[in-house]
Amino acid sequence: MSFKKELLDELLKNYKKPEDLFGEEGTFKQLKKALVERMLEAELSHHLGYEKHEQSKSSGNYRNGKTTKRLLMNEGELEIEVPRDRMSNFEPKLIAKHQRRLPGFDDKILSLYARGMTVREIQSHIEEIYQTEVSHDLISTITDEVMSEVDAWQSRPLDQIYPILYLDAIVLKVRDNGQVKNKALYLAIGITMEGNKEILGMWISVNEGAKFWLSVVNELKNRGVQDIFIACVDGLKGFPDAINTVFPQTQIQLCIVHMIRNSLNYVPWKDRKRVAADLRSIYTACNEKEATRALNSFREQWDKAYPTIAAMWERNWANIIPFLEYPDYIRKVIYTTNTVESINYGIRKVTKNRTIFPDDKAAFKLVYLALHNLAKNWNRPIFNWKDALNQFAIMFGERVTKTY
User: Fold this and answer.
1) Which of 67, 166, 248, 297 is the least crowded, having the fewest Cβ atoms under 10 Å away?
2) Which domains does the chain have, with CATH numbers?
3) What is the tens place of the pLDDT at every residue in 86-114?
4) What distances in angstroms separate CA 165 from CA 43, 199, 384, one per listed residue?
5) How does pLDDT run across 207-261, given as a tens digit for each residue?
6) Rounded CA gap, 65 and 59, in Å?
C-alpha cells in the first residue's frame, strides 16, 4: 500500500537525526503504539456497538477507562493503553488478555535458540539490541511451546515408499536421574520418490539393539511406510535384523565411508594413505568378483601389520557389496554420507555450546529447531535423481511403478 505525501511529511517534520526515527522514543515506535491503541479502540467500539463519544446503546455496557500494559516486541518494549469496558467481557483479538508479547517476538527468540545460542546469550543479545530484559523462564516457556509441534511432527503420516533410508546417530551428553550420560540421538533420513531429503523421525536412547530398532522400524511402518528399497547404516547394532523383520525385501547397505574410517582407526599416520588407496580398489571395483579379488590382494599386503581390517570387511561383506550392482552415480548416493554428514554438521554447530543438556526434552527441542532450519534449504532433488529412479525401476520393478 502507499501513503499520502502529506502524512509522510507530517511524520518527518521534526526529523533531524536517525534516532528521531529509530530511537527509544522515535517516530517508528510511537507510530506503532498509536496504531495498536487505535486498533484496540476500534475493537472495543465494535464490541459495544457504538463509537467513542457516541451515546451508549441499551446494552448497559460502556467504556470504563484504560489500563497500562507493557508489550515485548521485536524492537524492544512498548507501553500501551488498553481500553476497558464496564462489564469486563471485552476480549481483544489484536492483543489478548494476559498477552505480553506481540506476534514476531517469539519467532525472534526461537530463531536465536535454533542457531545454538544459550538462554544466557539470548538474554544478553535481547538486552543489548533492544534494551529489554527477558527472563530465563520466559525464554524457556517460549521454547517449550515447540514440544507440541515436535510431538505432531514425530507422529505425522509418512510416504508409502522411500527408495533410500539413512540411519545415523550423534552423541549428546544428557543429565538423567542426576547422572550425566552419553546418549545417542538417532535420525532417520529418507529420500522421497521425488529425490528430496526428509527427516522421518528422531529418537534418544542410551542402549541400542534389535529390540530398540524394531520399535523404530515398526513406528515408521505404523506411520504409513510400506516399502524401503535400500537402507544405509553405519553398522548400528541390531538394525539390519530389525528392518528386515518389518521390510524383508529391503537391501541393507553398510556405509562405506564409515567402514573406511573404522579401518583407518587401526592404522598409524605413516601408512594411512597407502592403506586408504588399497581399500579404494575394493569399493570402486566394477563388480563383486573384482571386489573380492581386491579384498584378497589387500589381505596379502596388509594382514601381517593390520589383521583386523580385512577380517572386518569380510565379516560385513554381505552388507557391503549391494551397491556394486549399481552404476557409479547411484553408488555415490548410496555409499557416501554427504547427506547425513551435512545434517550432522548442522546439528553439531548448534549443540556445541551445550556441554550438558538438562534432560531429553531439551536435546529434542534444540535438535528439532536446528533440523527445521536446515530443511529450509532442501529445495531441490539430489543430483542425478531421475537417472537413479530409472535404475530403481529396473532393479525393483513393480515396487517402483505401483506408486505411479
Assistant:
1) 248
2) 1-102 (no CATH), 145-255+337-404 (3.30.420)
3) 787 777 766 667 666 656 666 777 777 77
4) 52, 10, 17
5) 767 788 888 899 999 999 999 999 988 777 778 888 889 999 998 888 888 889 8
6) 18
